Design the sequence.
């Protein structure tokens, strides 16, 4: 029982991060109907940049993080302008392959710049565990979870109460109507990419501070965030959070109990099995929009 | 205020839809644009509002002026900023947002608090106030029509382009919508260009009417005169000048008359 | 665009793949060059050609699933792995002849493809991409669990006592199979199934209303595509006879295969050929030349520059093609052919 509780808590903590990663995917999908399969690679390379600033250039960690955030905004605007905008109107296959190719391009850059090493970010969040009865929570996990939740709340408020948020929601549903109301769709798309990459930077740095900076971090964009996004519903912000926690718990609990049976590493593919099941049963997710299709 | 000079529109650089349409909307007046399906009415509206751009269409000849500003090469976003708002055909509400969020979307370009504007819309459509927290996708057809019109009204446009406001609505609702159009026009002095299938309703509120066929304006006259025109009566108002009996010859006659008109 | 003055007078002529005498002659010359290649091409080039041939078979498969039928498959490399390991186990562990193992590898990969393609009835677009992406990771995970990450040694292929133990011998086996696979892919377009695939690709709901059994044809597309992948995988296993390992069949490879049909031109077998050949040439010929230059110019770059440069180069090529020429190399080829045939009256 204690073990189960421990798994549950670990799952929720890691699920918050997964939700945050998926949030970046949802933001872009919501506004532009593009599934950004390069999201994980951005997350990885932005974390590497943070490491470079902090360790190689010796900047204080907070300044490094700030610099990375600025870079992520610029990168978001650039990617939208030079890759996604020219692809508007092309079939889904084109967008999928383009983002995947972009992901490998970034990975190639990362290999060139940092090799295949594994590094640790400087410790900027305390790590000692807190004991809650029989369950221990590492403090940095708790911090990461808290930051994730905070971001979710901020984003919710942003969409609910700001004009830009309203514009994004209108653009996500009907671009023609949006333009007829005077909303500059191109700007909105660029802004949502910038937003998404800021979230990628934050989640990448948080994830790296929990584990390490490593080229393999790029994979969580595909193997964790995609199941989360699908489970929550492609367009839903809180779906990403709920889906993240479900996937996190599922992964830790199932992995924890199954690994002794099937050998280590099952927890890595467990979310993908979950994704296959969701695809078969309820492809629009828990909170997603059901789509009606007519000939 | 709005002047279209011999405007030619092509889709995909190939399909010629408007072949030289000229029309004029004076300040504060309602103008009706009548015509059969596929005549080019909606295209004319989209040419004005710039939304052609979203459908791979282009104004290839002629010009459109709005208060001496040439607008046929401007983007729809900039045209809206000049005060021209189009209500797109087919009640395109933002389905997953609430009524009030939809209206706030209409006031996207207004700065500061939009409370007053919201109240203004609610005074025209009290029903929307009751439904302001309802999800727009679940409103009825009439309510959705009110919503999209309110969404355009909230921006206080100088010129409103209405594309088939009565489509698929019951006669009673149609009347209500057109009453509202007239009231808004007389109170806010907003000029309007209305595209309609329901010629009778449109001519009842309009000062001036244009009939468009095959991408050309074939008739234009003050609304009252247009209502009396025997051709308009027969083709658009459905008042037969001849007897009940329809023979093949008359069908042919109809065809010939229409072609002559063009 | 046909050559001028060529008219069809019979149904047979209308359906013919090769129409004019000039085409027959060019085909014969091409085949002769292909057969004679090992006598003038260096050993390194034979290796490159073998890789190209194997890649071409798997890309033909992808052309059928994705290009013809429109079902996005992001797991083609994993299906190749299924074929490779099936073939390896059958020949090396169970001692079955290669001629048995080859079709078994294809059918096994096809069967696994059916399993992961089954969701395609309910989902499409992004969703299907996600499902096949899951297939990629799950299959490679399963392969790793079953056989480990270490290289697995495989026996040489042999047919009736003839041992394919050199690259040159393998070359003939591979080009034979590649030609057969290509011809089959080309002809598939003109069969009942091929027309059904195209209808499903263009609008699957409309296709269903026309009476096309969606479930059957979508699964058939997956089966045939993965069958090709399995056969390619089997050849792969026996070509680099010493070993196969899961690392050779990653998501990256799946993406590259899709990239090849995009660079070549989606939906045409010719595009598959052009895309595969040009990308493999780029990868095997230019990337090794570029990386030393890069390494010299930027001394701070880390190890593995060749690998990284290849990835960057290829990714850039794909993105640029998607933006600038989404119809691919095949479209250029058509333009060249048309202008040649219209010459000197270019209108």
Sequence:
């Amino acid at each position: 029982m204690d073990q189960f509780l421990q798994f549950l808590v670990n799952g929720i903590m890691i699920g918050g991060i997964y939700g945050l990663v998926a949030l970046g995917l949802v933001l872009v999908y919501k506004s532009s109907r593009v599934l950004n399969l390069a999201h994980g690679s951005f997350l990885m390379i932005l974390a590497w940049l943070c490491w470079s600033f902090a360790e190689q250039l010796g900047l204080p960690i907070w300044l490094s993080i700030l610099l990375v955030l600025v870079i992520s905004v610029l990168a978001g605007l650039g990617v939208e302008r030079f890759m996604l905008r020219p692809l508007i109107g092309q079939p889904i296959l084109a967008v999928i392959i383009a983002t995947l190719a972009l992901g490998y391009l970034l990975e190639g850059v990362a290999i060139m710049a940092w090799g295949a090493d594994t590094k640790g970010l400087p410790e900027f969040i305390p790590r000692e565990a807190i004991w809650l009865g029989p369950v221990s929570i590492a403090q940095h996990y708790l911090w990461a979870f808290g930051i994730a939740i905070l971001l979710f709340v901020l984003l919710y408020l942003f969409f609910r109460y700001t004009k830009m948020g309203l514009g994004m929601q209108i653009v996500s549903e009907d671009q023609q109507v949006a333009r007829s109301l005077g909303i500059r769709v191109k700007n909105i798309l660029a802004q949502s990419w910038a937003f998404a990459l800021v979230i990628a930077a934050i989640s990448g740095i948080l994830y790296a501070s929990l584990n390490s900076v490593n080229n393999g971090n790029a994979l969580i964009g595909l193997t964790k965030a995609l199941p989360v996004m699908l489970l929550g519903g492609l367009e839903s912000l809180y779906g990403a959070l709920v889906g993240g926690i479900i996937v996190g718990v599922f992964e830790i609990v199932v992995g924890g109990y199954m690994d002794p049976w099937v050998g280590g590493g099952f927890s890595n593919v467990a979310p993908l099995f979950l994704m296959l099941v969701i695809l078969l049963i309820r492809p629009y997710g828990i909170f997603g929009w059901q789509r009606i299709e007519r000939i | 205020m709005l002047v279209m000079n011999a405007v030619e529109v092509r889709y995909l650089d190939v399909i010629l839809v408007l072949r030289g349409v000229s029309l004029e909307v004076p300040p504060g007046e309602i103008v009706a644009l009548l015509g059969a399906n596929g005549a080019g009415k909606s295209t004319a509206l989209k040419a004005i509002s710039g939304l052609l751009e979203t459908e791979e269409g282009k104004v290839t000849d002629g010009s459109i002026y709005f208060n001496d500003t040439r607008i046929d090469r401007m983007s729809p976003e900039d045209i809206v900023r000049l005060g021209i708002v189009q209500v797109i055909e087919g009640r395109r509400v933002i389905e997953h947002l609430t009524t009030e969020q939809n209206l706030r979307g209409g006031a996207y370009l207004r700065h500061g608090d939009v409370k007053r504007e919201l109240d203004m819309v609610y005074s025209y459509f009290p029903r929307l106030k009751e439904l302001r927290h309802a999800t727009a996708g679940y409103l009825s057809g009439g309510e959705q029509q009110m919503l999209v019109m309110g969404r355009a009204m909230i921006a206080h446009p100088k010129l409103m382009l209405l594309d088939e406001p009565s489509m698929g609505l019951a006669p009673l609702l149609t009347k209500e919508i057109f009453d509202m159009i007239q009231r808004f026009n007389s109170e806010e002095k907003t000029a309007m260009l209305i595209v309609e299938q329901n010629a009778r309703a449109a001519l009842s509120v309009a000062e001036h009417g244009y009939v468009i066929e095959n991408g050309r304006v074939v008739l234009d006259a003050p609304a009252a005169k247009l209502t009396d025109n025997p051709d308009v009566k027969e083709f658009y108002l459905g008042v037969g000048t001849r007897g009940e009996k329809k023979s093949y010859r008359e069908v042919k006659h109809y065809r010939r008359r229409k072609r002559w008109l063009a | 665009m046909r050559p001028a003055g060529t008219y069809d007078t019979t149904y047979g002529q209308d359906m013919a793949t090769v129409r004019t005498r000039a085409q027959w002659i060019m085909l014969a010359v091409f085949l002769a060059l292909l057969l004679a290649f090992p006598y003038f091409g260096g050993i390194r080039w034979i290796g490159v050609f073998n890789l190209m041939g194997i890649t071409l078979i798997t890309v033909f498969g992808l052309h059928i699933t994705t290009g013809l039928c429109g079902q996005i498959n992001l797991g083609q490399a994993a299906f190749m792995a299924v074929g490779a390991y099936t073939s390896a186990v059958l020949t090396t562990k169970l001692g079955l002849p290669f001629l048995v193992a080859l079709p078994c590898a294809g059918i096994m990969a096809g069967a696994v493809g059916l399993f992961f393609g089954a969701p395609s009835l309910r989902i499409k677009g992004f969703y299907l991409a996600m499902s096949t992406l899951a297939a990629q990771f799950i299959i490679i995970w399963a392969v790793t669990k079953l056989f480990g990450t270490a290289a697995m040694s495989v026996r040489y292929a042999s047919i009736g006592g003839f041992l394919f133990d050199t690259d040159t011998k393998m070359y003939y086996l591979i080009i034979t199979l590649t030609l057969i696979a290509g011809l089959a892919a080309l002809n598939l377009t003109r069969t009942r199934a091929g027309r059904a695939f195209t209808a499903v690709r263009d609008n699957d709901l409309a296709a269903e209303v026309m009476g096309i059994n969606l479930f059957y044809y979508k699964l058939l597309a997956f089966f045939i595509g993965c069958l090709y992948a399995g056969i390619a995988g089997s050849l792969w296993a026996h070509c680099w006879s010493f070993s196969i390992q899961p690392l050779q069949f990653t998501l990256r490879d799946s993406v590259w295969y899709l990239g090849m049909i995009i660079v070549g031109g989606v939906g045409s077998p010719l595009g598959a050929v052009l895309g595969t050949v040009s990308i493999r040439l780029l990868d095997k010929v230019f990337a090794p030349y570029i990386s030393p230059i890069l390494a010299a110019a930027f001394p701070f770059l880390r190890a593995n520059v060749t690998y990284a440069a290849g990835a960057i180069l290829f990714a850039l090529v794909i993105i640029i093609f998607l933006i600038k020429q989404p119809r691919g190399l095949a479209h250029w080829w058509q333009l060249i052919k048309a202008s040649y045939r219209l010459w000197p009256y270019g209108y």
